[in-house]
Design goal:
This protein is α/β, with parallel strands linked by helices. Among the domains are: 49 residues; 95 residues, no CATH class. Helices cover 34% and strands 21% of the residues. Strands 1-2-3-4-5-6-7-8-9-10-11-12 form a twelve-stranded parallel beta sheet. Strand 2, helix 6 and strand 3 form a beta-alpha-beta unit. The longest helix is centred in the last third of the chain and has 16 residues. The chain is elongated, with a radius of gyration of 27 Å. It comes from Hypsizygus marmoreus (White beech mushroom). This is F-box domain-containing protein.
């Protein structure tokens, strides 16, 4: 093919050629012709032709693999990958081509598994299972899966659904209880953050869904996910023992505004608020405490629980960290004006209140610290920080401290 592709005259800048091809990004037939016309048009045309790859069975998967073997750059162009009718018989059997594509297509940012239900998870080859699980766990991917994933026979300790979407076309399967047995999935802990609230409501609503057997819930309380809180609590009211709400305090968009009767949840004893706080902005600490107070005012039945945790975790960007020292954080905590109100609310006997500071422990070398001299200050002796944190929190909550209900801790959390 290379002998038949002649470059355009050099007087035409390559940047202009690429821009013209970009303007044709949705003209599939034209792009195919351009890719066969000249070497100057080939690469940019292929970057659009293969930006979205749809594979509907093993035959087409093998064909795409053969193209990739000839030109590995094709996988670099792929941004969206779709497996059509994946849980059907035509996909089953040994398939090294699919596992190769899944593990090699590292540029993919949107992964869709669409439609159908005809086989069980155990019929999927192990190498493909491993590749699919790796894709599901990838933080760089938006993953859309068919609802049948919740009908597979799986017994899990911790199910993490973060950044996950249900395939729109096959969502209708949720209304067909004959084809999907939602009781086959079991998980002790569900950690959830989703893009589309509507796609998960039918899963939660199913009476035999895995949600109804949860013992621990970790919910990212922002965006669409926040509105799933009460539906999940209602579904798991017989089994839920602990609930963790991860919140980003926001002055302009108050959180924790839901109401629920906690007395209807006989096994729930432990409620934790994990606030992702910007340490360089003292107001976020005040907002966090105020939101806890507002939550208890809205939900007096929550006082029937045995334990409450309030944890502050630094919301540090991978690219920028405010220059805030450890001592500055202690000073900020001491200046919060709402401690007295919280102390009065939580000092009732029978409660255990734990105020925790989480310190990020991870790959500091990849963070671009504006306050680099303070790095050693945050990575210092954890025991010393624990004592200082204990003193400042107990000074702010004397009632809870005197009745023995208050504990504190400083912990390392993963980056």
């Amino acid at each position: 093919m290379s002998d038949t592709l002649e470059p355009l005259p050099p007087r035409v800048p390559q940047e202009l050629i690429d821009k013209i091809i970009d303007d044709l990004h949705d003209e599939f037939k034209t792009l195919k012709i351009c890719s066969l016309t000249s070497r100057s048009l080939l690469s940019q045309s292929q970057s659009h032709l293969f930006s979205s790859v749809h594979i509907k069975n093993q035959y087409f998967c093998a064909r795409f693999r053969s193209l990739v073997d000839v030109n590995p750059r094709l996988l670099e162009y792929a941004r969206e990958l779709t497996l059509q009718d994946f849980f059907q018989a035509q996909w089953m059997g040994s398939d090294s081509d699919l596992s190769f594509i899944l593990t090699t297509a590292t540029s993919v940012r949107s992964f869709h598994i669409c439609g159908g239900f005809g086989v069980s998870w155990t019929n999927i080859p192990q190498n493909v299972q491993n590749a699919l699980f790796a894709a599901f766990c990838s933080p760089s991917l938006n993953v859309a899966v068919p609802p049948v994933i919740f009908g597979l026979n799986m017994n899990l300790k911790h199910l993490i659904l973060t950044g996950l979407m249900l395939d729109q076309e096959s969502r209708g399967d949720l209304n067909n209880e004959i084809s999907i047995d939602f009781s086959r999935v079991r998980t002790h802990t569900l950690e959830i953050w989703v893009h589309q609230r509507e796609s998960f409501l039918p899963v939660i609503a199913q009476s035999n869904s895995f949600v109804s057997h949860l013992r621990k819930l970790v919910l990212y309380y922002y965006g669409d996910t926040a509105s799933l809180t009460v539906p999940i609590m209602k579904s798991a009211f017989r089994s839920l023992e602990m609930m963790v709400l991860r919140v980003v305090p926001d002055e302009y968009s108050p959180n924790l505004g839901f109401k629920h009767d906690f007395s209807l949840m006989p096994k729930l004893q432990h409620l934790a608020f994990h606030f992702m706080v910007t340490f360089g902005e003292p107001a976020t600490f005040t907002i966090a405490i105020r939101e806890v107070i507002d939550f208890f005012i809205l939900n007096p039945s929550a006082f029937g629980l045995k334990r409450f945790d309030i944890q502050f975790i630094p919301n540090w960007s991978p690219y920028y960290v405010p220059a805030t020292t450890w001592n500055q954080v202690l000073n900020i905590i001491g200046q919060i004006s709402h401690w007295n109100t919280l102390d009065e609310l939580l000092s009732t006997s029978g409660h255990n209140v734990c105020i925790v500071l989480g310190i990020i422990e991870g790959n500091y070398s990849r963070l671009r610290y504006s306050g680099l001299p303070y790095l050693h200050d945050w990575r210092g002796e954890i025991r010393e920080k624990s004592h200082a944190w204990h003193d400042v929190i107990h000074a702010q909550m004397p009632l809870a401290s005197q009745c023995g209900a208050l504990t504190t801790d400083v912990i390392l959390v993963e980056d």
